[in-house]
Amino acid sequence: MDANVEAINLVRKALSADDLVKAGSYWAKANGFDHWIYGIGAPAQPRLLGTFPPAWIKSATTGETFSDPLLTAADKRRAPVVWDLQSRAGLPSLLTVTHNRLARELWEMGLRSGMTVPIIKDDHHAQCVFAVSNTHVVDPRVRYKQEPYAMVFALYFQQAIQRVLGNEVFTPQTPVLVPRELECLNWSSQGKTSAEIAMILGIAESTVNYHIANAARKFGVRGRLQAIQQAFRLRLLN
Questions:
Q1: What secondary structure letter does DSSP report for 236?
Q2: Would you say domain 3-170 falls under CATH 3.30.450.80?
């Protein structure tokens, strides 16, 4: 039986998280990958499952590393991204400091090449990802031939996650904001500057900036605008 078909059968029969890990590991090994990982692409409170190096998984759960450019690129393509850390092939041309640190951390842990597969959700964006990697560089032409198999397996894996573990297991909880953080975001959403918000609330301008930055950190986003957008998205602001 074809290894890809067998891997899908293992996923369909999975009854526990251990079964899912075994199925993922079987598919990865059958296709020549050393490591694999599945998880939510949202930077806040990511849920991860797989065999990536423990040190990287620990770093990813801080909520910063997992917001990586590979998922963003895969999301835009609506297709897998084949990448190579040595030649930097497949990586976006413009990387932030965080993204460069991600690439450096993966390199230091021995990862050299791989593939990031987006799993498109109901909002038509990649919120989940199935990524596989190697400790050596692989001819991209080989990986490109594996793209359709990777996409099919990732979809079956996502369905199994929902069936076995439930949607809530891989859905980040809504961050809890203190009243002052919500007040600052609310006034900011109305176009008020930090100085104006400080006068309205009777607090220091630096305190306003602190509350907004803290809200952004809880959301796992960068900047005031993204924090406001996320607050509206989560219906914390009307």
A1: S
A2: yes
Single-letter residue type at 26: Y
Q: Is 217 exposed, middle or buried (0-12, 13-18, 19+ CB in 10 A)?
A: middle
pLDDT digits (tens, 9 = 90+) for 3-27: 889 999 999 999 988 899 999 999 9
Could you list the beta-strand ranges (E) of 52-97.
81-84
Cα-trace Rg, the chain: 20
List the chain domain ranges.
Answer: 3-170, 179-233
Cβ atoms of 175 and 233 within 8 Å: the answer is: no
The encoded tokens of residue 209 equal 């900036």
Query: Mind listing the pLDDT tens digit for each residue in 188-211?
Result: 999 999 999 999 999 999 999 999
| Tokens (6 digits) for 83 | 């990448």
Give, as one character, the DSSP assignment of residue 126.
E
179-233 CATH fold = Arc Repressor Mutant, subunit A (1.10.10)
Task: Identify which has the larger pLDDT, 177 or 54.
Answer: 177
pLDDT at 198: 96
